[in-house]
Amino acid sequence: MDTKKLAQQLLAQAKEQGIDLVGPGGLLGQLTKTVLETALEAEMTEHVGYEKHDPAGRGTGNSRNGTRSKTVVTEIGPVEIDVPRDTSSSFEPKIVKKRQRRLSGVDEIVLSLTAKGLTTGEISAHFAEIYGTSVSKDTISTITEKVVAEMVDWCNRPLDRVYPVLFIDAIHVKIRDGQVANRPIYVVIGVTTAGERDILGLWAGDGGEGAKFWLQVLTELKNRGVADVCIAICDGLKGLPEAINTVWAQTIVQTCVIHLLRNSFRYAGRQHWAEMSRDLKPVYTAATEAAARERFGEFTAKWGGRYPAIVKLWNNAWPEFVPFLDYDVEIRRIICSTNAIESLNTRYRRAIRARGHFPSEQSALKCLYLVTRSLDPTGQGRARWAMRWKPALNAFAITFEGRIHPTGN
């Protein structure tokens, strides 16, 4: 009988007998109990060397010795199982280990809910409401603490030798350290020569970071294998441009155009955002720096009287804004793309808003790492997003001749 027919038969029998699908005594609970007990019996047979009730086991020095009951928390709720014992007490089950009170799938549910920003109390209440089982806040904390070592490994993993583009951005979170205060956590995303986006790491700051802090972060990336970066895109973080060129002398530092636009809108009334966006587009899509300056002159004539702070913002950022105007349109598309960082930031912000604030810096980093981890189907936070890359790769190979060596298909 195939799996589908067996499932249909079991469902029909459960319906006839008035058995629920889930919950205490439900069909899925009974099936889980049967599967686990069958696996445990198979492990015991392998351990003692003979089948249950087989005369061959007589006089072997070790034999079955009944069972003991224990309740394990599963993805469908608590399930009571009978674990076989042996006379020598040497049986070490693997499917449900000694003193194990929950299946690994429960841990993954806890980590997934933590990545969505739920607190330990909310996760505990979720298990009680949905699965009808008790998972204490201490247990939930213990589960999430297990990822700290994994996070350390992730933050120290080897990186690619060359990244054509590096994005450096900050997410602000509320951390309760004596009193609740906004703290930045910096995320670095690299675009690889295979056209993939790779999250390189997370670093906590206190808002007063300077060249020394950035030199430490970038040196760490270099020590992990990053020998060259063609273009680094950031948002006017103090001391960062100097640190970038200290670590990678040939790197072009580019102000993030998206952040420049966003910062401009902070000084303007919402009713002017759409019109102002249309007037700024000719500036950052201009063919040359001279054309961009001319278009910005037109913008200044129209908006400078009403919003002088926006004009000052662009003039101050101009030296780091104009480098990308020298490049091919395909390179500009990569640099100006909001997808590289905004899709990730959206996930981060969703978890942060759900949580409100964090009790410690490590708690905040752990939550953001779990968000990062959840993007990867393998659960290791190392998956990369593919992007439209071939045209840009050709432009990069010509512009940065000798520095770009394509990989992948």
UniProtKB/TrEMBL annotation:
It holds the Pfam family Transposase_mut. InterPro entries: Transposase_mutator. Keywords: DNA recombination, DNA-binding, Transposable element, Transposition. The keyword Endoplasmic reticulum does not apply. The keyword Nuclease does not apply. Belongs to the transposase mutator family. NCBIfam families: transpos_IS256. Required for the transposition of the insertion element. This is Mutator family transposase.
